[in-house]
Design a protein that fits this description.
By secondary structure, the chain is an all-alpha fold. It has one domain. It is about 55% helix and about 0% strand. The protein has eight helices and no strands. Helix 5 packs antiparallel against helix 6. The chain starts with 6 loop residues before the first helix and ends in a 9-residue tail after the last helix. The model has no long low-confidence stretch (mean pLDDT about 95).
């Protein structure tokens, strides 16, 4: 049976995130990703990478940067180009943590993560231009006729895309870093205002 790539790194990232100790209430929107991550984490599983990405997103949304930063830095041990590993997920874990660390005033961590994102180990990595030009953003909370609770994934994905835009810059000149920051902040406020997504502590 083939060995999963970098199992020791996967185990260390899960240990650093330590989702079981966050005290997330049953039924909370953030609970599922951490529950899945605590059961299994393999870098060559798209399901596991999706849980990892969601866990990082939630750590950043709820201010658990003391866990997100070391876990994101641990990802530098997994090179882009590793067979069967979709590196884009790992990169977004890094860019999410970079932007939220910068927003929290942790400039040292933000700089380390910025360098890691721009200089991925292994094959150089850059997002596809369309994913950072703003054209794929859903802008959920500007749609009053939509059930925001049912479509919260659209806003979560926007936050992730916007963090990629924040780190790599956007080819669309109207997407300045100031506009990106303001849009992230508005999306975060909208998400945390939803019933199943309110901070639990």
């Amino acid at each position: 049976m083939a060995r999963h790539p970098y199992p020791e790194v996967a185990a260390e990232v899960v240990r650093l995130i330590d989702g079981d100790s966050l005290g997330i209430p049953r039924g909370h929107g953030a609970a599922g990703a951490f529950r899945g991550l605590s059961k299994r984490m393999n870098f060559d599983s798209t399901t596991d990478l999706s849980n990892l990405y969601s866990a990082f997103l939630n750590l950043c949304l709820y201010g658990f940067l003391d866990r997100a930063v070391p876990a994101a830095l641990a990802l530098r041990a997994v090179p882009n180009g590793t067979p069967m590993v979709l590196y884009g997920y790992l990169n977004t874990c890094i860019t999410l943590t970079c932007r939220f660390a910068a927003r929290a005033g942790d400039t040292e961590s933000a700089q380390l993560l910025h360098e890691l994102a721009l200089n991925a180990p292994g094959v150089p990595y850059r997002p596809k231009p369309r994913t950072i030009d703003g054209s794929l953003l859903n802008d959920l909370f500007s749609k009053p006729g939509v059930d925001h609770g049912q479509r919260v994934g659209d806003a979560l994905n926007d936050v992730a895309m916007l963090c990629d835009m924040w780190v790599f810059g956007s080819p669309a000149p109207e997407w300045t870093r100031e506009r990106i920051d303001a849009t992230i902040d508005a999306d975060v406020a909208g998400i945390l205002g939803l019933e199943k997504w309110r901070p639990w502590r």
